Amino acid sequence: MTKSELIAELAMANPHLRGQDAETIVATIFEEITYALARGERVELRGFGAFTVKHRDARTGRNPRTGAAVSVEEKTVPFFKAGKELRQRVNAGPAPRTAERKQA
Q: Does the pTM of the predicted model rise above 0.90?
């Protein structure tokens, strides 16, 4: 699912929202998650998962094409750990989309 598909699903599931309002909601959520991670904070969405940042030390890597040693600088990377409910739902198999569930 792309960001635009998420916005379309949100707008369709909530007819009282204009498309632009749905877009603002999705953008705001993503921005706040990004800003919290940039500050080194943990973001937990119950039933979905948790976003954290992990620190990776500097190391010596290898160029896969030539095999030459290359220096890889230290860095901080975002990390996502799926929550229990999300893992269970994914393992249960495909579920109908929100609009399809409402029609059934």
A: no
